[in-house]
């Protein structure tokens, strides 16, 4: 009869997500993962199968937590307020291992290698864009923004602004909070 593992799988995925987010896929070795997760190679492979499999789980965790955070904010404050507050939340998150988006970092790092993980990251970005479009549509329905705007176009522009904000937040001398405020102010004009 196999032994029950003495670790919390979800907690390990969270630690791996933070390591991958900070260092990227190529910058994270199996030794780094084994040290961070405090696992021996055999236990690591038994638990996750491969570095790619764990990275895929980490991407899913990152993306689903971001979507859930935005949905919760929208439920509490309404769709437009959530979209206005989200950029500041991104740059003010001092617990984040990196300011840049893990999904966009993955896409840029692995797309040139035709890695299936880059397609996973792209699919997560598309889901996030769809969530933005839904929130813009909800804001139209409640009268917060004019019905003349295409929610999908707004969502693409908003996601592009967020990705640019997150890259800017990594740079020295850039006032990312001011950029986040500019994004929020732009939404107030809709």
Automatic annotation (TrEMBL):
Residues 29-48 bind DNA. InterPro entries: Homeodomain-like_sf, HTH_TetR, Tet_transcr_reg_TetR-rel_C_sf, TetR_C. Residues 6-66 form the HTH tetR-type domain. It comes from Halocynthiibacter halioticoli. PROSITE patterns: HTH_TETR_2. Signal peptide: none annotated. Transmembrane segments: none annotated. GO terms for molecular function: DNA binding. Keywords: DNA-binding, Transcription, Transcription regulation. This is TetR/AcrR family transcriptional regulator.
């Amino acid at each position: 009869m196999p032994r029950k593992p003495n670790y919390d799988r979800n907690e390990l995925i969270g630690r791996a997500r933070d390591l991958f987010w900070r260092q990227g896929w190529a910058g994270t070795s199996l030794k780094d993962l084994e040290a961070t997760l405090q696992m021996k190679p055999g236990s690591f492979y038994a638990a996750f199968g491969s570095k790619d499999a764990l990275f895929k789980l980490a991407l899913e965790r990152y993306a689903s937590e971001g979507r859930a955070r935005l949905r919760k904010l929208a439920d509490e404050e309404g769709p437009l307020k959530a979209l206005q507050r989200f950029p500041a939340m991104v740059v003010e998150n001092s617990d984040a291992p990196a300011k840049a988006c893990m999904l966009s970092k993955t896409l840029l790092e692995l797309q040139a290698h035709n890695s299936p993980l880059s397609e996973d990251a792209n699919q997560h970005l598309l889901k996030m864009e769809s969530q933005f479009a839904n929130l813009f549509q909800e804001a139209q329905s409640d009268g917060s923004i004019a019905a003349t705007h295409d929610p999908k176009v707004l969502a693409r522009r908003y996601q592009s602004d967020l990705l640019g904000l997150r890259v800017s937040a990594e740079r020295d001398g850039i006032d990312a909070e001011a950029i986040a405020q500019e994004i929020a102010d732009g939404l107030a004009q809709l």
